[in-house]
Design brief:
CATH topology of the largest domain: Arc Repressor Mutant, subunit A
Number of strands: 5
Order of helices and strands: HHHHEEHEHHEE
Number of helices: 7
Helix content: 55-70%
Shape: flat
Structural class: alpha+beta
Oligomer: single chain
CATH architecture of the largest domain: Orthogonal Bundle
Length: about 220
């Protein structure tokens, strides 16, 4: 082996070591950025999931509880409160509602000691949760379509024929004479007593071809 070949081999190893170190240093320099980007992407995905679950479960509080129970099944209300950062009273109320809606299950935690054993809560699978929402949306859509068909039937139905368009109203006008007639005159002229205190009633029929008004004097 020539000495020149040995020197070239050593120089090649040195170049390779230098490339490895530079790549390692570069990865170390950007490792924080890579981790931050990864965490940011995970946070974005988590927030999208929470937003979707908030729409399905009505509130963000219930969504956070559901996500925690998916990650930590069999958790008590206190453990859920610690894991989500929510108030214990809020967690207990939300868990009771979710249990009534069959979106979480619960059972007593087994314990060898005496005393009240807390409930352990477990969330149902996402497929079951979405399936329930689909059924609910389908029911609401059916209700809307049924109402729409009822309204369409009401619009096409014949109107009440009790009063047609060709029927004109009748106008009644009441005119009273002076009610403070002289009692002495009424007493001296009994024949005119009714005329002095009479009431005129005018009835106008718009269907009549004549323009004459009918006036009746009460006797």
């Amino acid at each position: 082996m020539h000495s020149d070949d040995t020197d070239e081999h050593r120089d090649g190893d040195a170049d390779t070591d230098g490339d490895d170190r530079s790549l390692e240093d570069e990865l170390l320099e950007h490792s924080d950025e890579i981790v931050d980007d990864g965490r940011h992407a995970v946070d974005e995905v988590d927030q999208r999931i929470v937003d979707l679950l908030s729409w399905i479960l009505d509130t963000e509080t219930r969504a956070k509880i559901y996500v925690h129970l998916l990650a930590q099944p069999g958790s008590t209300s206190e453990e859920v409160a610690k894991g989500t950062g929510l108030y214990p009273s809020t967690v207990r109320e939300a868990l009771a509602e979710l249990h009534d809606e069959d979106r979480v299950t619960r059972e007593k935690r087994a314990s060898e000691g005496a005393g009240n054993n807390p409930y352990e809560y477990t969330a149902i699978q996402p497929s079951e949760l979405v399936g329930g929402v689909v059924d609910q949306v389908q029911q609401e859509l059916n209700t809307i379509f049924t109402l729409d068909r009822v309204l369409e039937r009401d619009e096409t139905a014949d109107p009440d024929p009790a009063f047609g368009d060709d029927v004109d109203p009748v106008t009644i006008t009441v005119d009273e004479t002076d009610p403070l007639a002289d009692d002495a005159d009424n007493a001296s002229h009994p024949a005119d007593a009714d005329a002095a205190t009479g009431t005129d009633i005018e009835i106008t029929d718009h269907d009549s071809d004549s323009d004459d008004d009918t006036t009746d004097d009460e006797s």
